[in-house]
Amino acid sequence: MKILLIRTDGPETELYLYDGRVEQSRLIWHADRTLAETLHQKILELCNQASMELGDINALGVFTGPGSFTGLRIGHSVANALAYSLNAPIVSTAGSDWQAIAVKKLMDGVDDKIVVPSYGHPVHITEPKK
Fold this sequence. Notes:
Layout lengths: L1 E6 L4 E8 L2 E9 L4 H15 L9 E5 L5 H18 L3 E4 L4 H10 L23
Parallel strand pairs: 1-4, 4-5
Antiparallel strand pairs: 1-2, 2-3
Helix pairs in contact: 1-2
């Protein structure tokens, strides 16, 4: 099972590719305000490092938060879209061992279908004027 793990809760973004329970490749970069522009490219770059195609990904795991509102939204949106388009299971986890938990859940057949971020506090969104 080829697993893509995504963490976008802070200025540094982390991508990991696992083959089963073994880490194959990783890519960590300072994305900060360029996350939306760079995330897709970096996922493809990570696949190239591992000599595989995007379509070879069988499952996805995402760090659920807490963290940056925008970063988590971008990461979760991309992960949900990839899981849907690849017809792959997806899970979200948190904590210092989030990667191991995500890989275990996926290897055990868990599929959250859709993942949502956890911001750690209520989101402050401006009310519509109309």
